[in-house]
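ARCHIVE CARD
CATEGORY: sequence design from structure
SOURCE FIELD: tokenized fold
FIELD CONTENT:
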């Protein structure tokens, strides 16, 4: 998707005037038609030219380090599911591409030049169904199938003499060398480094068109890609509003690129072109929820701990459009408890959410805990005892279990 990496690119470019001039080439283009997007590589592709071979060679090292990173979520069922999805929407290179999930609570995905992709857990959290995720994966496949990395790299070299190929590869290899330490920042740096010479606005538009075509061919509604963008734009706005900042300030690169709204509009037009009238499309929501089930709580937990209440509230409420459950209600409460602003009644808001959460069979133990404590606070000891007993039954080994036992007598 390359959303946040555009931001990293901007921050890297501050102070690097000459490089900035060379790489900001974003001008409004006519929409790229999906019919014109044909894959430029076939199954089993290997580079034959020296510069690309060198890049692949470096990428093999980077991939080895990433594959060993302790930031990766290694749930075998989830990984098999994602690999299966790439198999469905990866076009002719479906069998050649690899996919990794990193536990990083941000919306991002990136394709590396040798055909492996990293998806951040924050992206998985935000997908409402399999069709949306298929759109992201197909977009990343589009970058690979259209050979974007090497095209952008060669383009950069023509315009700028700052980096020789050697320096560039050394830079990428150097950035990659820190990945295995399992440090969030280093992995983010790697994304920023790669984005320095990849994915101009034109190439993003190509990947969008190619991706929409791939998911339509696989039987998903192509409009889901536009929906994902719409969600992301609304989340940025919600986040900015709570922090009382303007979105532009945080997403400044969009000033020089067409606005995200125009990218979304292009995706809608593309989807209209690809949608077969009267066809029933499968969103694959049940399959998706099953696949991410084991890590959904962890992802929600990571999100609310970012203490970005506008974004977190938007994420929770968007997921709840498909139906509230105990987990979502609990984390709705956590958003306010963690912000804990007395003047805005945050604790009271949180308590209301916990009370709602425990009405669902899937409420996590912590929902019972906080609900019980809130009942005690209100002087409703008998009900509070019931709730806390439930908590202890669900989580007998909890660190605070002795304390809670003492409390309920
Ligand atoms: Zn992209």
């Amino acid at each position: 998707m390359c959303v946040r990496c555009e931001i990293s690119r901007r921050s890297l470019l501050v102070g690097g005037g000459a490089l900035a001039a060379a790489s900001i080439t974003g001008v409004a283009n006519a929409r790229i038609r999906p019919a014109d997007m044909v894959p430029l590589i076939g199954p089993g592709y290997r580079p034959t030219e020296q510069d690309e071979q060198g890049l692949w060679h470096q990428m093999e090292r980077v991939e080895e380090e990433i594959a060993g990173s302790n930031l990766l979520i290694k749930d075998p069922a989830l990984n098999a599911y994602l690999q299966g999805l790439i198999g469905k929407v990866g076009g002719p290179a479906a069998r050649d591409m690899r996919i990794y999930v990193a536990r990083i609570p941000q919306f991002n995905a990136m394709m590396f030049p040798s055909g492996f992709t990293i998806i951040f857990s924050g992206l998985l959290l935000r997908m409402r169904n399999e069709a949306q995720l298929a759109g992201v994966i197909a977009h990343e496949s589009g970058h690979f199938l259209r050979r974007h990395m090497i095209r952008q790299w060669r383009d950069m070299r023509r315009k700028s003499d700052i980096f020789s190929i050697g320096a560039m590869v050394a830079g990428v290899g150097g950035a990659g060398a820190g990945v295995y330490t399992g440090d969030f920042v280093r992995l983010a740096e790697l994304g920023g480094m790669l984005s320095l010479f990849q994915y101009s606005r034109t190439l993003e538009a190509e990947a969008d068109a190619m991706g929409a075509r791939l998911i339509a061919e696989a039987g998903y509604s192509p409009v889901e890609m536009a929906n994902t963008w719409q969600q992301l734009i609304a989340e940025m706005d919600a986040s900015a509003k709570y922090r009382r900042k303007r979105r532009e300030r945080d997403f400044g690169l969009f000033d020089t690129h067409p606005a995200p709204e125009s990218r979304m509009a292009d995706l809608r037009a593309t989807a209209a072109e690809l949608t077969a009238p009267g066809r029933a499309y499968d969103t694959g929501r049940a399959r998706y929820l099953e696949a991410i089930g084991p890590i959904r709580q962890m992802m929600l937990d990571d999100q609310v701990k970012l203490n970005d209440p506008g974004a977190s509230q938007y994420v929770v409420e968007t997921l709840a459009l498909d139906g509230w459950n105990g987990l979502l209600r609990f984390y709705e409460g956590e958003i306010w408890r963690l912000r804990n602003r007395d003047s805005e009644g945050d604790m009271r808001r949180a308590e209301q959410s916990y009370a709602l959460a425990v009405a669902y069979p899937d409420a996590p133990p912590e929902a019972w805990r906080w609900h019980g404590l809130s009942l005690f606070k209100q002087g409703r000891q008998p009900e509070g005892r019931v709730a806390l007993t439930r908590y202890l039954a669900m989580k007998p080994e909890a660190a605070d279990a002795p304390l809670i036992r003492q409390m309920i007598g």
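CARD ANNOTATION: Residues 4-28, 175-183, 248-257 have pLDDT under 50 and may be disordered. The beta strands are 98-102, 109-111, 116-120.
SHELF: design records, drawer C
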